[in-house]
Amino acid sequence: MTAIKAITSAWEAVGGDPALVPRVSVVPRRGALDARLPVRELARASVGACALAAAELGARRAGLAEVPEVLVDDATVATAFHSERLIQVDGRTPEAFAPLSRFWRTADGWVRTHANYPHHRARLLSALSMPEDATADDVAGLLARCSALAVEEAVYAAGGLAVALRTPGEWAAHEQSAAVVQQPLVERARLDSAPVRALAPVGRAPLLPAAGLRVLDLTRVLAGPVATRTLALLGADVLRLDAPHLPELPDLHADTGAGKRSATVDLDSDRAVFEELLAEADVVVTGYRPDALDRFGLSPRALAGRRPGLVVAQVSAWGTHGPWGGRRGFDSLVQVATGVAVAEGTGGRPGALPAQALDHGTGYLLAAAVLRSLTEQSYDGGSRLVRLALARTGAWLTRGVGHGPAGGTLYDPTDVRLLERDSPLGRLRYAPPAVSFADGPADWAHPPVPWGSDAPRWV
After folding, report:
1. Angle between helices 390-399 and 39-62 (to 10 degrees)
2. Nearest of 349, 232, 336, 215 to residue 284 by alpha carbon
3. Phi, psi of 219, rounded to the nearest 5 degrees
4. DSSP letter (8 states) at residue 261
5. I need a labelling partner for 448 at 20 to 30 A (CA). Which of 48, 147, 154, 425 fits?
6. What is the pLDDT along the chain (459 residues), one digit of tens a residue?
7. How many other C-beta atoms lie within 10 A of the C-beta of residue 308?
8. Residues assigned a catalytic role
9. What gap in Å lies between CA 350 and CA 166, rounded to an integer?
10. What is the DSSP pairing of strand 214-218 with strand 283-286?
């Protein structure tokens, strides 16, 4: 699949008009996001679709005769797909994974665990009947005597995260794989007959397609925050809400909090606060397990029923259908289950993609779907639902995107200049935005703020 064909595939998945794709230009870079699987093509396509959706909405709001030209540079895209690894606060580089977040050899194969958050680490050790001070060597010794599938099920039952390594064939035969591939890459639905959205005009210095729009961000690592960070770049007032007892990891907050505000709300005791925010929101983005927020009345139809004209965007690891529809998951675990880790492995050992590409790719597609929904509402009305899953993006990577031509100049990471600025968190060094179109923003309006430091109200 050529570069433009991959972008066309992503653009059509979010409901875009193929006639606009020629507005996109690609700067190919050999070696960018190099992998056996077409990671570069997935990244290029997801960012290209997002930038085109932004340019389309911007043209409509600014009254432009044509959609601004979009530029997708593989070097900038590759840098953005490594943003959580490149972020520096006062010169300190983050640790990507905690000691208990890794591959482990088992008696019959491999299993990967995710324990970056303290509560996930505690649940993992509890499932393994190990003390809180257990070391990686302790865990390795125990798991070497266990079945990978037995570990997967035991840790899941305890509320933790562990996935047994599967080959592409094993995943294809799995019931969850069948449920995932039956869904489109981007699920899109109209929820009601809410009236046409009136969008205020915007200027062109810079062109901010999402200016004035209010986004409630109920997401966590990493796809959802990438999507809402992109909407913040494009001018939206993004208010991230977290439970007071579940702080975000500081480095991830520094990376994905750009342009946002951050507040805490306890949905059990502060429902009135949330309802006040919802009453003036334009978009709600959620990144929790399917149905996890339903008990709070936050299902898409319930939200749209209380706020007609809303755009509801959801992202999850495994999707809403199938036996794993309610499970927690992260990019690294989805790679392990779906055969990606086997495809990228060497010498009998599992491997990984060169970036958290399922997270980042899904995040840009989610932002693109939100932007396209806003454009559609401006002439056709209706509350909208858009939904993506990391596992479905993984299926697109392994079965749909395809490798493009290996042309262009050789990729050199130093060709992309990282941005720097002071912030309340310290001196930041970070990746520039991947989304680029004529007269669009070159940086976020403000740096990330300390986690939970804002009042839960609209500016």
Report:
1. 120
2. 215
3. -130, 165
4. E
5. 48
6. 567 899 999 999 999 999 999 999 999 999 999 999 999 999 999 999 999 999 999 999 999 999 999 999 999 999 999 999 999 999 998 888 899 999 999 999 999 999 999 999 999 999 999 999 999 999 999 999 999 999 999 999 999 999 999 999 999 999 999 999 999 999 999 999 999 999 999 999 899 999 999 999 999 989 999 999 999 999 999 999 999 998 999 999 999 999 999 999 999 999 999 999 999 999 999 998 878 888 888 999 999 999 999 999 999 999 999 999 989 999 999 999 999 999 999 999 999 999 999 999 999 999 999 999 999 999 999 999 999 999 999 999 999 888 887 778 999 988 899 999 999 999 999 999 999 999 999 999 999 999 999 999 998
7. 15
8. 359
9. 10
10. parallel
- The CA-based angle 306-312-178, given to 5 degrees, is 130
Number of separate helices (H) and strands (E) present in the chain: 17, 17
Q: Are 416 and 427 in contact (CB under 8 A)?
A: no
Distance CA 85, CA 81 (A): 9
CA gap 94, 401 in Å, rounded: 31
**CB-based contact 184:13 (threshold 8 Å):** yes
DSSP string, 75-139: HHHHHHTTHHHH-EETTBPPPSS-TTSSEEEETTEEEEE---SHHHHHHHHHHTT--TT--HHHH
pTM score of the predicted model: 0.97
Q: Collapse the DSSP code of 33 into the 3-class scheme (helix H, G, I; strand E, B; otherwise coil) and give the result.
A: coil
- Beta bridge partners, 72, equal 26
Q: How far is CA 188 from the centre of its chain?
A: 17
The sheet carrying 426-430 orders its strands as 88-89, 426-430, 419-423
Query: Which alpha helices (DSSP H) does 381-414 contain, by range?
Result: 390-399
Measured in whole angstroms, the distance separating CA 63 from the mean position of its chain's CA atoms is 30
The neighbour count for residue 246, using CB atoms within 10 Å, is 11
Coil, helix or strand at residue 239 = strand
- Please say whether the beta carbons of 356 and 222 come within 8 A: yes
Neighbours of 137 (CB within 10 A): 9
Q: Which amino acid is at 387?
A: R
d(CA 49, CA 457): 31
